[in-house]
Design brief:
1 helix; mainly alpha; membrane; transmembrane helix; 29 residues; single chain; transmembrane; rod-shaped
């Protein structure tokens, strides 16, 4: 279970990056 400790924050960062990209795309269009 401890081996997955890195996946949680990493997934949150990825979601934040994707959300940022989507917002930028919407603003450009």
């Amino acid at each position: 279970m401890n081996g997955e400790g890195w996946a949680w924050p990493y997934g949150v960062v990825l979601l934040a990056l994707v959300a940022g990209l989507v917002i930028v795309f919407v603003q450009l269009n």
